[in-house]
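dumping the sequnces here before i forget
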Amino acid sequence: MGRIKQQQQQSQQKVFSRRLAILGGLKVAMVATLAGRLYYLQVIEGEKYRLLSDENRINHRILFPPRGLIVDRFGIPLATNSPSYRAILVAEQTPNLQATLEAFSAIVPLSERDIARAMKERQHTQDFKPITVKDDLNWDDVNAVELNLPDLPGISIEIDQKRVYPFGGITAHILGYVAVPNEKDIENDTDPLLRQPGFRVGKNGLERQYDSPLRGSAGESQLEVNSFGRVIRELARQEGQPGGDLVTTLDVGLHQFAHQRISSEMAGAAVVMDVYTGDLLALVSTPSYDPTAFYRGLTTDEWQELSNDIYGPLTNKAVAGQYAPGSTFKMMTALAGLRAGVSPDDRVYCSGVTVLGSARFHCWKREGHGSQDMALGIKNSCDCYFYEIARRAGIDKIAETARMFGLGSAEGLDLPGEKPGLIPDTTWKKAYFGDVWHPGETLVAGIGQGFITATPLQLCVMTVRIANGGYAVKPRLVRRISDGSQNDEGNPVFPGIEVPEDYLKVLRNGMDLVTNGDRGTAYRSRIDIPGMEMAGKTGTSQVRRITMAERARGVIKNENLPWNQRDNALFVAFAPVHAPRYACCVVVEHGGGGSAVAAPIARDILIECQRRDPSRRNPNAEGGRREMP
Amino acid sequence: MGIELHSVGSAPGLRMTQRIRQIPWSLVILIAMVASIGFAMLYSAAGGNADQWMNKQMVRFAAGVCIMLAIGMVDLQRLAKIAYPLYAVAFVLLVYVEFLGEIGMGAQRWIDLKFFQLQPSELMKVSLCLVLARYFHGLTYEEIGRPWVLIVPTLLVVLPAGLVLKQPDLGTAGMLLLAGAGIFFVAGVRWWKFAIVFALGIAGSVGAWNSGFLHDYQKARLVTFLDPANDALGAGYHITQSKIALGSGGVWGKGLMQGSQAQLDFLPERQTDFIFTMLGEELGLVGGLLVLTLYSLLVVYGFAIALRTRSHFGRLLAFGVTMNLFLYFFINTAMVMGLIPVVGIPLPLISYGGTAMMTVMVGFGLLMAVYIQRDFRVGRRTSGED
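..and the predicted 3d for all of it:
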């Protein structure tokens, strides 16, 4: 028994030992697998996982650079940044959210909407992330909140930057506004700033045109965060590059004056330019809009109201309003005549009507002006005289001349939305209508009606080039960008126009007579301050067709027409008459007669302009620029 | 036959002082080293706070050491005697939590004994080793060759494993099955039987997959295991973050309390199931290999005891508890390294929590008892009638 038993036990132990060895070997292999896996993850793939762990823990936060300022030629701020105070609440820091909001409301009243919005935001926000309680607090509110902070657990005040336009709507058409970028903006721009909530880009005007230099470049803060996104600490910080400041050519005092002056009318535009430098001193379009509303974001209703407004507050009429220039165009017809061989002394008899074939072309003065030379023709704005000159010069000569003076194509101003106007000629008619040019159309074009359109800016440029003795001055709005990307500090040099000075003298003489000659069409709006006298030209352009029948009955007076069928009133002028420095163009939409409505406005603007004399005052008044209100 | 009951100095013959002198202090030191690494990691996991986890864990470990030493003093003969009753108790408790736990305690699978929570499945891990060792101890190699002899031990393994799987606790069920299979194997069950069971197992798991026996989240875990990138923020999040944490540790680690993945909460369960990941992140490859080495030494220690033991019961018991320890640490580390699915098995001695700590300390106590009585025989039938 013992022997068998012993054998059994031995075989049992043998099997056990053998199999234990097998399992032991298997375990060695398994542990080796673990070690190998560890080596693979930590050494071979280590670098990859180190990067991934950094990606996990490091949150890159974009820092907004301060947007560049926009100032006028004397350094008066037109667009600035100002701190905006926001009350925020971190839910985990208050024992009772509702109670804290009520306590806050006792200090700074919250509307029910504010509270509802805050509660809603709370639902989507983690405990440690701030929710906005109230935006855009004023300084008194901030002080009151700060004082009561012990009773407002979780509340704190955060400072943001907001864009401020001290002149509001007055400069809105020039500056434009900044607003939250839309999808298209983001698509076309790789700047990470655009993808940040709360960041705003230039959407119109100079803010848009110079968005890139104004914007600056983003800074970055590297934050260590945990898996819930809570910030543990800041690891590194790199400040951004602040945006460059824009120094414009505007004299905002003059601009404001012009804006207020023309606001006596429903809608219009006024442009004031330096005839030598092309500096735009004022560029007014009325009515205007509140740029802050765009900053905030418009509601659909607000947008509808603005865009359907018949007075067109969203259009910068100074550069985008295209009007028939009417009689202000007669200088171009006269010049085309001179260039075609007409002598300024050639006389044309005005009987009140010119007959061409079977068509009759009326002078604005039914009884006629009698015998007119060029100076008188301009002074009296005699239509029949210019019908004849236009006929002699021909449309192509008129068009060529007008283009030399800046009409018919955009001036290349650094402002979005500039319109080219239209100067027709035979080629154009053929191309667009497939029709030949009719001689009658030349006569209509000769008095600035028909197909011809021009913007107030173009008419001002035309006047500038007449006044400065034939230099192709171009308008500009920006003198300098402080980041150095544009520096127009020195006065630009412009090429001359191939027109004899004598011809321009004839035009200037005619314009002198308009305002200063006895019974000139704008004599009542003359400037009688010695040394400030202006020369100008009126324009009254129809926006509707006067039928034969109406003419027979008697033309309906403007006052009896609906606003938008009344004549446009225009006036172009320069001053001082014998040493021109400033040119001005005023257009009053549907204002009636140029001499009655537009000329007095232009006169007041030019008086103010010469009093201020912005071109001769030192425009480099850098000091105290940022300290201005 | 097999009258060895009171042969050459069977246990009662060894006096308490002799037993104490026999305590394998090197084993105790190895265990204490592993536990100490655990304390350091728990200190780090709490961000340098000893009170949160480390101190409690130290108290548990101290209690565990006492239990281990106490069990180490117990007579092997007596352990063999209580094997069946203990198994019966564990099984009843398992059934109790399975059915009553379902109704009265939510999905709770433990019994609250005030000072600690008794998990029947953990008790089963120990008693299964005991009962299998006891069963095979009573069989000769020839007897084991007879198929019907295996019916009882197979049921002893499969019934509790099934109950645990139903809980559902895939990890523990797997451990019970693998530990059982290991004991079957060293006990001398024939190779071809394992082959049949393996084939049946494959078929069975395919069947289980299709029959809806596995919960959806268990299936998801398996699928996610196969392709974690597929669902990086959902179910794959744990594995992905665990691999990032381990990998970013590099050779030397980021230093205690410097592991960004663990400290910034990217790593789930850093103080329990994923503590090895945190260790790998903060102490690097060096720390990870050190821990694997210490565990391997404990396994070698256990196997060496099993080989040196004269009684079959002692051999099988020593092997069983060592196998349990190996399964614990292998499943846990392989899981956090992304080698096997996430099954919720803690790292013994290191992970925070008392349950696994108790199981392995009781296991070490049994191992110690076997070591102390390695030269003594245990009767085939403990009733002592023959």
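The domain at 61-248 of chain A is CATH 3.90.1310.10 (Penicillin-binding protein 2a (Domain 2)).
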